[in-house]
């Protein structure tokens, strides 16, 4: 059996411990969910638990049929609800034109006497706990809205801030959000 110095084993254990601590720490960016802003200091939008940044025109993508996430075309026109882009040379239908927006960064305010989050989860940069749905924890999106439980699972509001119906179906692009399905920022 080869000799393995005790000091070397202890140093190796310390390095592994430090690496594990860094690997488990959540992102610490100034945007909700710990993401980092783009070059224009705008936070990404979260769709299907994935961060999406603005395009060159400053427009965020939209969600269409089959939970596809698509950006506007080169003329700044979003695809229709089925995910089909307009033909070349056609005018952009009302409600499908992209308009530049910027989701601002969040400044966390210290909350010294708040109770612990469920399952001892960490708070987001704004100091809000995730919500539990079943055995999973879900954080707020960039607008500060929690997801909702539907018949097909837990889903977030779309890029316009409208939740899907109970069947998990989102509104077509450009359609007004029905009453009661608009996301309202909250903090648990």
Q: Could you say how many structural domains there are in total?
A: 2
Contiguous runs where pLDDT drops below 50 for at least 5 residues: 21-25
Largest sheet: 2 strands, antiparallel
Topology order in helix (H) and strand (E) letters: HEEEEEEEE
- Give the overall form: globular
Query: What's the N-to-C terminus distance?
Result: 56 Å
Integer average pLDDT: 81
How many beta strands in the DSSP annotation? 8
The Rg value, from CA coordinates, equals 21 Å
What proportion strand? 5-15%
Number of helices: 1
- Major β-sheet strand ordering: 1-2
Helical proportion?
10-25%
Content-based structural category: little secondary structure
Keywords: Signal
Signal peptide: 1-23
Task: Describe the fold and architecture.
There is one protein chain. The chain is mostly loops and 188 residues long. 10% of the residues lie in helices and 12% in strands. It has 1 helix and 8 strands. About 3% of the residues have low confidence. It has 2 domains: 79 residues, no CATH class; 73 residues, no CATH class. It is globular, with a radius of gyration of 21 Å. The strands form 4 sheets. A two-stranded antiparallel sheet has the order 1-2. It has a two-stranded antiparallel ribbon with strand order 3-4. The longest helix is centred in the first third of the chain and has 19 residues.
């Amino acid at each position: 059996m080869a000799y393995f110095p005790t000091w070397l084993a202890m140093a190796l254990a310390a390095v592994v411990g430090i690496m594990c601590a860094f690997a488990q720490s959540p992102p610490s960016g100034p945007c909700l969910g710990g993401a980092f802003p783009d070059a224009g200091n705008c936070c990404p939008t979260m769709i299907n638990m994935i961060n999406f940044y603005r395009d060159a025109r400053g427009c965020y993508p939209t969600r269409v049929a089959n939970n596809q996430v698509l950006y506007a075309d080169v003329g700044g026109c979003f695809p229709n609800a089925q995910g089909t882009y307009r033909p070349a040379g056609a005018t952009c239908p009302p409600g499908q034109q992209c308009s530049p927006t910027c989701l601002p960064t969040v400044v966390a305010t210290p909350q010294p006497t708040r109770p612990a989050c469920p399952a001892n989860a960490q708070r987001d940069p704004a100091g809000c706990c995730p919500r539990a749905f079943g055995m999973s924890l879900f954080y707020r999106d960039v607008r500060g809205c929690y997801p909702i439980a539907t018949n097909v699972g837990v889903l977030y509001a779309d890029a316009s801030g409208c939740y899907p119906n109970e069947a998990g179906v989102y509104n077509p692009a450009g359609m007004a959000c029905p009453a009661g399905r608009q996301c309202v920022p909250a903090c648990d």
